Amino acid sequence: MVTTAQEKAIIDDIKLKKYDQSYILKKAYPKPICYKQKRAAYDMFSGKKCSAQKSEYKIIETQKRIFDEKNHNVMILEAHKGYQFIRIYNVCIYSKIRSENKPKILIKEAMQYIFSPKGKLYFKRLKTSFVYYYWDWDRDSNLNYHKMNLEKYEFYCVSVLKKSVVKKLEKVHLNKSISGYMVEYIQRILKGDYRYETLVELKHFGLIKELIDHSFYSLDDIWPAVKIVSRNNYNIYQDANGGCSLWIDEIRNLIELNLDIHNPKYVCPKNLLEIHNIHNEKIDRKNKKEQLKIQLERSCEDNIKYIESHQKYFKNEISNEKLIASPLKDVKDFYDEATYMHHCVFSQEYYRKNNSLILSVRNKTDNSRLETCEIDLRNKKINQCYGKFDKFTEFHNQILSFINQNMKKITKGA
């Protein structure tokens, strides 16, 4: 078994090619930058006047006289002795038009990611001065091993050069849209997950980005849905920012609701945002019910205390020709009342309020629930009285009059 120290020694013995500055500069800028002003145009790599032809230059119309590029990065993939090297070069250019001084160009190899034949990752970089990205070029020109998390956004490379790759990566697709995530992308390919290559072929760069950025998104979960999307040519990039997080969330909703993610009807909805919101509401209601059940299971002690403090009111039931009002007698009654009436008498734990008595007011004819009434036992007055969804029913005024007329009987024993 190869130890970490031995593997690092093998990596250090591998002699990597040293590239000329002109080669890296040419790859970083396939076309030189041209600053085009009103009267003239200037080559930023020489500071001299130029023809400003689009075939020769990348033209930037501006009145600035200084071109200052500090964080232009180039990524080169190389394979040596079964190891995969991802080499990142940092390009810094400072030039001034109509100046006798030559432009200052500094190109240094800033970082390396190395994958061993077994897929283990090693990370080397230059020393930095205080801040992570500010290299201390003069202190040390060698790359050293570092233990740190991979930073996806620190090194977005404009150019990706594929020199040579290990056998597992021979068919890997490289594209500028995923170049900032190349390290994580390659890790997944080396681990044998070639579905990421399929995503590149389908041009789902945004989906790759979401999967890499958010570890709680699993490709295993959404892969059947991805295949349905590709067969139906469905656009998954419909959220406000043009990404696909809304579609991924919807697929997770379908899984949560046990709906078929192999069915285009669910996976490719016509109105993604509307369906997403409907399913979110369903899941919220489902979660709320589960929480209420858990709360009911945990409320055994509260049930005992409630019965001890309120049992003297349980027989104080009142009725007339149309209505009947009876106290809730245990915590399960609170749960049943809240579930049917869709209000918070259970979730807000009204059974813990020692100075309150909760009545369920029903229709005497069919025993259907009409409203739930809270009475303050200290001043013997109605605190609140509501029907389903905290709304008044057509019987509301009759109920208030009925309870007020029988207040003494209801609160007998208080």
Describe this structure in words.
- It is a single chain.
- By secondary structure, this protein is an alpha+beta fold.
- The protein folds into 3 domains: 4-213, no CATH class; 220-293, no CATH class; 310-410, 3-Layer(aba) Sandwich (Aminopeptidase), CATH 3.40.630.
- It contains 13 helices and 14 strands.
- It has helices spanning 4-13, 21-28, 182-190, 195-201, 205-213, 219-232, 245-256, 264-267, 272-298, 300-310, 331-341, 396-405, 407-410; strands at residues 33-36, 41-43, 58-61, 66-80, 83-96, 104-115, 121-125, 144-145, 159-162, 318-319, 323-327, 356-363, 369-376, 381-386.
- Helix 7 (245-256) packs across helix 9 (272-298).
- The longest helix has 27 residues, at 272-298.
- 24% of the residues are buried.
- The mean pLDDT is 84.
List keywords for this structure.
414 residues, alpha+beta, Aminopeptidase, 3 domains, 13 helices, 14 strands, 33% helix
Could you write a compact summary of the structure shown?
With 414 residues, this protein is α+β, with helices and mostly antiparallel strands. Helix content is 33%, strand content 22%.
Strand order, sheet with most strands: 8-7-6-5-4-9
Uncertain segments: none
Structural class comes to alpha+beta
Quick one: overall form? elongated
Number of strands: 14
Described by strand count, sense and barrel closure, the largest sheet is: 6 strands, mixed
- Rg over C-alpha atoms, rounded to the nearest angstrom: 35 Å
The count of helical stretches stands at 13
Q: Overall mean pLDDT score?
A: 84
Strand proportion: 15-25%
Provide the helix percentage: 25-40%
Total domains: 3
Can you write the helix and strand succession as a string? HHEEEEEEEEEHHHHHHHHEEHEEEHH
Distance between the termini: 80 Å
